[in-house]
Design brief:
CATH superfamily of the largest domain: NAD(P)-binding Rossmann-like Domain
Bound molecules: NADP nicotinamide-adenine-dinucleotide phosphate
Order of helices and strands: EEEHEEHEHEHEHHHE
Radius of gyration: 19 Å
Distance between the termini: 28 Å
Strand order of the largest sheet: 5-4-3-6-7-8-9
Number of strands: 9
Largest sheet: 7 strands, parallel
CATH architecture of the largest domain: 3-Layer(aba) Sandwich
Strand content: 15-25%
Number of domains: 2
Structural class: alpha/beta
Length: 275
């Protein structure tokens, strides 16, 4: 992607806003596979120094990519990652919380126990809240930083069959992000939310596989079933992890310097309403 040029009527020299992230220090959660791995790769490609984290490290790590293994559903795991970010990177310019998911059973609201709710909230809300609390003050002190939280269109379009707790946690994450953006904006720190629809990630592949074997249908049919459960996707396909990563790279870079406190949907048109 090239640089962007802006001019005004008085025709000063064109301003060039780079899409490079050379030397910027980035922490990416959920970076072991799927969307988080694509985000880590994209930021690294733009020149950032990336520290990834998940419970399992990828088998091969490229240059300028470091990894810390931790479970972010516990305060101890978050503390470990924050400590390693400070030690290995010496501060942070970019924080991308890609971590999230659901492991609740199907059966609707009555099937969800306190334990299911606690897990959905720990994974989809509190991991980001705790990491921000540890790391955003450093960005505020430095007078610059960019934070992205990955939520979901389910915060607006909740599916009740198996992911109600997840949807509610993502809604809380989105509202929390807006308040954080308002608080830290005056100190040069931007906070944005990326809300994907269906992404063809490793997590989604697993779901398609389970539906396909469970019901004795083909993977194509299983994929169609997931898309139907969302009410269809006007573009006719899920998003690719690399496409979500592209949006994140834009939001943490200088081309989006005036954008904060906003939710950015990437869903192939799935949400059928405005706003
Ligand atoms: N896929 C979709 O269709 C979709 C739709 C809307 C929103 N989203 C959101 O997009 C984000 C990425 O989703 P994805 O489908 O790309 O994810 P994914 O393929 O399921 O990957 C999840 C990543 O998070 C890590 N992780 C899981 N539990 C963890 C824990 N307790 N502590 C630390 N790391 C943990 C996983 O590694 P380990 O298991 O090794 O820890 C993995 O690296 C999530 O926030 C998700 O909610 C996804």
């Amino acid at each position: 992607m090239g640089a962007m040029h802006t001019t005004d009527d008085a025709s000063p020299p064109p301003v060039t806003i780079s899409d490079r992230l050379d030397g910027r220090r980035a922490l990416v959660t959920g970076a072991g596979r799927g969307t988080g791995a694509a985000v880590a790769a994209r930021l690294r490609e733009a020149g950032a120094i990336v520290l990834g984290t998940a419970r399992t490290a990828p088998p091969v790590l490229p240059d300028r990519h470091d990894f810390v293994v931790a479970d972010l559903t516990s305060p101890d795991g978050v503390a470990r990652v924050a400590e390693q970010a400070a030690e290995r990177l010496g501060g942070l310019d970019i924080l991308v919380n890609t971590l999230g998911g659901s492991r609740s059973p199907s059966g609707g609201f009555a099937a969800l126990t306190d334990e299911h709710w606690a897990h959905e909230l720990d994974l989809n809300l509190l991991a980001a809240v705790r990491l921000d609390r540890a790391l955003v003050p450093g960005m505020v002190g430095a007078g610059r930083g960019a934070v992205v939280h990955v939520a979901s269109i389910q915060r607006r379009q909740p599916l009740h069959a198996a992911t109600l707790g997840y949807a509610a946690a993502k809604a809380a994450l989105t509202t929390y992000s807006k308040g954080l953006a308002n608080e830290v904006g005056p100190y040069g720190v931007r906070v944005n939310v990326v809300s994907p629809g269906f992404i063809r990630s490793s997590g989604a592949d697993g779901l398609v596989e389970r539906l396909s074997t469970g019901q004795g249908i083909t993977r194509e049919e299983a994929l169609g079933q997931v898309m139907d459960s969302l009410g269809g996707i006007p573009l006719g396909r899920p998003s690719e992890p690399a496409e979500v990563a592209e949006l994140v790279a834009f939001l943490v870079g200088d081309r989006s310097a005036a954008i904060t406190g906003a939710e950015h949907t990437i869903d192939g048109g799935t949400v059928p309403t405005v706003g």
